[in-house]
Write a structure and sequence with these properties.
alpha/beta, 5-stranded mixed beta sheet
Length: 303
């Protein structure tokens, strides 16, 4: 175990928490490690919505390049930020046990809900689902790491902003005034952490494999297969959640129009040992029920 595993990460507080967590687990197993923070394009360009930047894996590309160049050995990501197709030569090494999957609304009071209001979010999925439930509201774009977004909410006259609960919980930023949006289907793989490594690096792959949580891996792979089959990348308003209870996978997925007016959803279940290809089956049901036409409309609107 003489080799030091260099752990690449974005340099936000949340990303560093994730990398340090992986470092702690590997150290407990006897491995030598060091954390190497890198700034990503997604962190640097804050004046444009993600879908306008035209880059697949905007939060992961910088780390992918660093790994392929040999500057880092593994990288730790929020799995929902990772494209469904990894670069050639880079593979999944472990999916850690999943945290809270839900979205929450951080707000300044809920009197606005049944009238007019302004909600901040940088996510097309959150925007569409919110407007579907509250069509009289408007949404504004919100970018930056979680600390920056929380500060922007404080500094503006918005009624609230939507966050992933897991991110705020991990760095103790969850405020007292929030509402759990249990009706909102999360992003595929929300709440999960992914470690990637080079395909040829057997040392790191064997080390990191010890951190893999099989039930979480099964669920997020179904969700990401659903996403990939819908051709959503990281930008279309697509929600997906798979949960395992007593050897049964329960799946909910949906696709919305960008304005939230149109919604197509699927809800199915299957035995865990029969779940290979299940995400694609669920996606095909969406596509057959009008999803193909809706995806064409979404892509045309985003050009």
């Amino acid at each position: 175990m003489a080799k030091t595993i260099r752990i690449g990460t974005r340099d936000s507080e949340l990303a560093l928490w994730q990398a340090n967590t992986v470092q702690k687990y590997l150290k407990n197993l006897g491995y030598q490690t060091e954390v190497l923070p890198v700034k990503s394009t997604g962190d640097l360009v804050l004046d444009k919505p993600l879908y306008e930047l035209g880059i697949t894996g905007i939060f992961t590309k910088t780390l992918d390049i660093a790994m392929l160049n040999g500057d880092i050995d593994i990288a730790v990501h929020s799995m929902k930020d990772v494209p469904t197709a990894l670069p050639i030569g880079i593979v999944e090494a472990a999916v850690l046990e999943r945290a809270n999957v839900t979205d929450i609304l951080v707000h300044k009071g809920l009197d606005f809900l049944e009238s007019t209001g302004t909600i901040a979010t940088g996510s097309l999925r959150r925007k569409a689902q919110w407007l579907h439930k509250y069509p009289s509201h408007i949404t504004v774009d919100l970018r930056g790491n979680v600390n920056t977004r929380m500060q922007k909410l404080t500094d503006n006259d918005w009624n609230g902003a939507i966050f992933a609960a897991a991110g705020l919980e991990r760095i103790n930023l969850k405020p007292k005034q929030y509402s759990t949006l249990d009706w909102m289907i999360p992003a595929p793989a929300q709440g999960a952490m992914l470690v990637v490594a080079k395909e040829e690096d057997t040392f790191c792959l064997e080390a990191v494999a010890n951190l893999n949580h099989k039930p979480s891996e099964t669920c997020v792979h179904i969700e990401r297969e659903f996403l990939r089959a819908l051709e959503g990348g990281c930008t279309a308003p697509i929600g997906a959640l798979a949960v395992i209870e007593e050897n049964t996978v329960y799946f909910k997925g949906n696709l919305f129009s960008l304005d939230g007016k149109n919604k197509i959803e699927v809800e199915k279940q299957i035995q865990v040992n029969e779940s290979k290809g299940f995400g694609k089956v669920c996606a095909e049901e969406i596509l057959d029920n009008g999803g193909s036409e809706l995806m064409k409309e979404i892509k045309a609107e985003m050009k």
